[in-house]
Amino acid sequence: MSNEPILFYDIPSTAPGCAWSPATWRIRYALNLKGLKYKTVWVEYPDIADLCKRIGAAPSMIRKNGSPYYSLPVIEDPNTGTVLSDSPLIAEYLDAAYPDTHRLIPPGTRTLQKSFSAAYDDATDPVVSFIVPAVARILRPRSEEYFIRTREADFGKKLTEMEPTGEEYDVAWKAFETGLGKVSAWMKADEPFVMGDVISFADLVVAGEMQWFMKAFGEGSDKWKDMLSWHNGRWAKLIDNLKKYEGPAEETPDL
């Protein structure tokens, strides 16, 4: 097998370090954890579908109306001729194609990894009303317009009207804290990762989400500072434990 860098397709932002998407962060962590060579290719939101069709990446899902939905991450591995979308499938591929590297999905844990990801999404659903409007504020102009237009169609309301205010804000934010508390309770207090002291894909799911919150809310924001204090600082510790696998910060590409 040749040793060419894997092409890793990601969505740029104006946030520090450029990378922000929770789904793509899972694979960014994975590639660095495995020590694999890769090159980031930045793709604006409106260009994702055309890119995927051009390189042969499958849609990540099929909408209820039967239309394909294309999203990132996508990898293109010149060493094997593989083009793949959807972060769990990419993780499985990287384990199979590069078996001598760190296993993201240890043998016998595939169901655990998938179940954890689904349960995590359900537990943290209250954050949606906060994070979606925040994301729009860190995107570059072409992606920002696309994101706002499509998300407003999905949610049936203006993003500027999406974040709760007053008492509703406090209730929704507390519900998010409680949801993350459920996730924390699934893990032992004295163990840093879902599988104890072993880093697995489930940890990359959570850490990718934490990167999302940090970049979208802002590292100096009250929201992010509040989150870092929750659950005995578990989420701050997780980010710190995986910091060596973030890779180098990348610059926002020229407009």
UniProtKB/TrEMBL annotation:
Which residue positions does the secretion signal occupy? Answer: none
Database matches in InterPro entries: Glutathione-S-Trfase_C_sf, Glutathione_S-Trfase_N, GST_UstS-like_C, Thioredoxin-like_sf
One example of the protein's molecular function in GO is: maleylacetoacetate isomerase activity
Output the Gene3D superfamilies linked to this UniProt entry: 1.20.1050.10, Glutaredoxin
Q: Which GO terms describe its biological process?
A: glutathione metabolic process; L-phenylalanine catabolic process
Identify the residues that the record assigns to the GST N-terminal domain, covering every copy.
Answer: 11-102
PANTHER family hit by this protein: MALEYLACETOACETATE ISOMERASE
Q: What is this protein called?
A: GST N-terminal domain-containing protein
Q: Which organism is it from?
A: Mycena maculata
Organism lineage reads as:
Eukaryota, Fungi, Dikarya, Basidiomycota, Agaricomycotina
